[in-house]
Sequence to fold (425 residues):
Amino acid sequence: MKTLTTIAVVEALLLTLACLVNAARAADFTRTDSPTAGIQEAVDALPPNGGTVKLPAGEYVLRQSIVLRSNVTLAGAGPSTVLRKTRYAETKLAAPADKGSRSVRVEKPAGFAPGDPVAIRDQNAMGWNVVQAIIKAVEGNDLLLDRPMPRTCDPANRGFVVLCFPALTCNRASGIVLKDFAVKEDHARDLSVHGTLDLSNPRVRFAYSLPFPLAAIQLVDATDTRVEGVSVTGWMSDGISLQRGANDTVVNCLVEKCAGKGIHAGGGLRDSVFSHNISRSNDDDGFFFCAKNQKLTVSENTLANNKAHGIGGLGESGDKFNTVTKNIISGNGLHGIQMWDGDSNTVTENTVSNNSQSSPGRFSGIWLGKTSLSVVKGNRCFDDQPAKTQKHGIEELANCHDNQIAGNSCHGHAQKDMVLATEQP
Fold:
């Protein structure tokens, strides 16, 4: 049996070798006590100027996030390289978790353990306000945390704790490459722990959703970064989330069956490309424009059978000069493309069909509300189902102005094929 001293020497030699050649194999750093199956250790072993961590085929069980830094490449062997989150626990808060406290009292601590990353929220703590912490100890019904609560979460406001974290994340990094691997989560959430819920009510869903900071891939202020050939399946939040940053590329990725949005771009992301991806069967939008996105190109993607919009939020909160082109957008629950409360965006040459599956006859292929100075040209919108669901091919509300809508082909809808602002009462 190897002694601890021998193991330490071997690990030191591996680290030195990784620093010399700017490459490491995660398998060489695998330890049973590693919460990232050796991947974080391999990343940390690279020299300051970065390098490549190779992920051979196999399963890597994640119990915490892999934190990336500049100029690091994570390269798998394709779908046979799987990063998997295997544990799940969720419980209601049993008492207010006050700002500054380092512990939270829960109704059912079973399933939580020291080292678990958790998310804590109530209906007033959404988006960036969700609390992320790591459990240091479990004492009775109290979960002791590694940091103070930055805000109060209250059981009276539907407060809860859930074992959830990004699989891969970064903050203010550049030159990251993620390619050729799969990220999977085994468990759907069991919301019955909260009692009877009307999940058809959007406010209820909002109160219990897990926001984008918990996305499987959550890149913040990333620049010149590339995500290629990566699949995300079954994550309890969004699939791929890029917040802020610039000059990023997401290409040839698959995001499916996630509990949030498939692909989420927001926070002022600029000059980035999302192309040839598939985002399907997610519980929210296939692709979501969040806020202040400028000069994004969303092209040649397939956005299908998502429960909300195929593409949602385009224009809202300062999205400008974005181009949505040559996408296939079909069978989504709400609008195919939702353009809302913005200006100066371009939507061209998309094929948009058979949407409004959640409420037949209510939502349109391309919908414009409070939208101005935008271009909608050369799109093909149709409904070829025996029972029509898509309301109109293109619907522009009366509160829109100065849009260029021309050269579109629309046919076969539940109501009129096209309704423009000038035709609205």
About this structure: Residues 259 and 324 are 24 Å apart (CA to CA).
